[in-house]
Structure formats: C-alpha cells, structure tokens
Amino acid sequence: MSAGPRPSYDELAALVVVQAEQIAVLRARVAELERRLGLDSHNSSKPPSSDGLGKPAPRSQRRAAGRRAGKQPGAPGAALTQVDEPDAVVDHRPVACAGCGEVLAGVAPVGFEARQVFDLPPMRLAVTEHRLWRCACACGTHTTAAAPVGVDAPAQYGPSIAALTVYLLVGHHTPVDRTAQILADLFGAAPSAGWIAGLTGRAATRLTGFTQRLRQVLRTAAVVHFDETGLRVAGRLRWLHVACTPLGTFYHLDDKRGRDAIDVIGVLTALGAGQTAVHDGFKSYLHPAYDTAGHALCNAHHLRELDGWAEHDPAHTWAGTLAGLLREGKHQVNQAVAAGRDRLDQTVLTDLLHRWDQAVQAGYAANPPPTSGGRGKILALIDRMHGFRREIWRFAHTFTVPFDNNQAERDIRMVKIQQKISGGWRTPHGAQHWLTVRSYVSTVRKNGLHVLTALRDALTGNAWLPPQPE
Fold first, then answer.
1. How far apart are CA 222 and CA 105, in angstroms?
2. For the chain, what are the domain ranges?
3. Cβ–Cβ under 8 Å, residues 258 and 284
4. What's the rounded Cα separation, in Å, for the pair 379 and 398?
5. Sign (positive/negative) of CA torsion 8, 10, 13, 18?
6. Nearest Cα to Cα of residue 21 among 306, 373, 352
7. pLDDT in tens, 81-108
8. How far is the CA of 67 from the CAs of 73, 74, 196, in angstroms?
C-alpha cells in the first residue's frame, strides 16, 4: 500500500507555525493556571477565608514607617486614673506605730493615701413595681391610673436589659441561645428564645426616622464609600450593599447587585459635582448615570493585583513599578498632610504621573494583545491603570479622598462575621431588620456615643438621629 503524497515544504512550514501557536497558547494557559494557584488574599482580591489550610503567614500591604512599635512619643496615654467622687469610701487606720509599737487607737490622723479599685457592682436585675391605683368616685365609677409607656404586662423585662440583648445579638454577633445563656449567667434572668429573637425586629421598626435621616446625611457628604458582597438569605444568594462614611453606615439587602439596587439605595444617584464616590471599580458604579460625581478607585485592590503579577513572573517589572509608585504617592500625601499642606507640590505630582505613564507603556510593551483575540486579565489590568488614571490618583489631587476603600470593607466585614457565625438568615425580612439595627449601632459608635444608651433610647421610641445636614 502506498504511503500517499509527501507534504511539501510549505505545508510542513505552515504546520510548524500552527503547532508553535498552539504551544504558545498552551504555555500561556499553563502560566495562567500556575498564577491562579499562587493567588491568595495578599496578592489578589480573594477573601482571607478562601486561603484554606495553606493560608500564608500574614503580610501587610503597609511598608515600614520607621517608627517603633507601641505608644508614640507625645501621644496621649490611656492609663486608669482616679476619680474625684468615688461611689464608696472605706477607711483603713493603722493599729500600732511602725516605729515604737505604741497603740494608735484614738489618735487623730494627719493625712491619707487614696487607692481606688474599679470593679463591677453585684449584678442582678432590679425589679420596679408600678402600682396602678384605683379610685372610687362618688358617682360609683372606679378609675384606674394609666400605666407608663411601655409597661404593658403584669411581669416583663425592661428596656435596659432589652438594649443589652440587642447589643449582644447585633453588636457582637452572639447567637440567640448563647445570648440567653449570657443573660442567665450574669443576671439570673431566663428570657425565652422567642423574646430574644423578636427584639431585633422590634428595634428595627423604631429606627425608620434614623434610616431616613442617615440617607439624607450620606447624600450630602463630600466623600462616600460603596461596596457590595453576597449573603446567604433564605437559602439563596442575595446582595448586601453598603454606603458609608467615617460617621455613618447604611446597609441595604437586595436581590440584585448592579444598578437596580444602587438606584433603590438612592445615595450614589444623589451625589453631584464636588462630591466623590469611592469604590472598587465595579462597572455598575461607573455607569454614565453617576458621572455627575467624581470617582476614586480603591488602591488597596490595585496593590494586591500588581503585587500578584510582579511576584508571579520577574518579567512583569512594570507591575512592581506601578505598585511602588502608588506607595510613594501615598507617602508623599501623608508627609504633606503632616506638614499642614492641602495639596502636593505640582512638580512632585507631575513626576509621579509621568513615571506612572511610562510604567503603563512598559506593561503594554511586555504584553502585546494575543493573536487569538480577547484582552485577558493582565491587559484588562493595564487598561484600567491607563484608562482610570485620574480615578486611581484622585487621593493625590484631593487630600480629603482616601487612598483606599477600607472604610466600606471594614463595615461590610462585620456583616460577613455574622454570616460566618450564624450561617445566614432565614428570611429577607429578618436579615434587613438585623442590618437596620447594625447600621444604627455602627453609626452611633462612629459618632462616639454610648451604644447601650442609644439602643435603649431606640427601644423606647426616642432613637438618636444624625445631625441634620446643612
């Protein structure tokens, strides 16, 4: 049997070219898979919980500041100090002279040394009985006095223990059964699980005015942070959205992640000229409908991505250069703020941006577009570094805009902790109630107020409200 015609030189050359292209594609795929295997929470946007048993040693994105650990010189101390009016005074007199041994009974003291002990008083529930007296009128009618507001049953728990219960449930993510155990251990109380579980909804229904006022405050803030994450509610994925500032936290639960949910919240839609939205670059935040406000992208995300590419392949020196420039820019801003300035020297800023553009072009040169089409992750990253330069470097133009979106990430982390402990919420209604109370607790704490007092006020119908925006 004949072997058939032999391929020509041109056919063999074409086959070699095809195979070389296939090998290049396979090598690129292998490199990408190896890169993904090396990703963790320190060099990507993956959460720390995804690191698993191979969790790397903690490594901060911060660099050495040249300061020793602990309290810095000149910083105020936090030592326990004596009070002028102690709750109780116990006198101790010497029995005999330390010199000659003479009995000192009846000798007038010449001075004293005060030592104060700060401790908890005996903890027990105080029971207040409200007696609703009846009076008989000459007309024969018996009239009973009205009960104070909130005193509705022959025996009930008061607003202070209710506030503590909500504080444990929402402020410290304590499950219902453990909350009941804590109350029993501390006070000998035995509230039912139903009473405990119902308090969050009771508090949330009395925070309508707070929620409305908080929205107004956020809409007028100069800088607002935004973020979103998935939550398990009623057995399926829903989306938690947060809009926040250093003085306020607003949570919203929605079935959608994108524009529909953002519009329902109504904060980003209300921002205008002179205001800035800080976020991680999720495309819905960058829709033209929200262009009236300025935007700033989270550079903590960028540092993780750039460090990841620089560590993956020594050829990606451009990524390390970009990460270094961001850190240098942050350092320059911090120094300028410490010196009392409100802007960078123009020559410093121009130099940083010039070197940034050079590093971006080096990234493009090292990563030409693939012949097979598509941009891929690395070119998408370089495109972002090029196309969103203004949003990335806004912190260096306007010092009131932070370097990162850590404010929103810190506020979201508290809800993720609740999900880790409880595994999710059984109903969207219950989840939103929890989030409403968590918004209140977070905002109260940010404003330096006493959380338990604020929760007690909320449960008695007098919730604290953020100051009215001017």
1. 70
2. 299-404
3. yes
4. 28
5. negative
6. 373
7. 999 999 999 999 999 999 999 999 989 9
8. 10, 13, 47
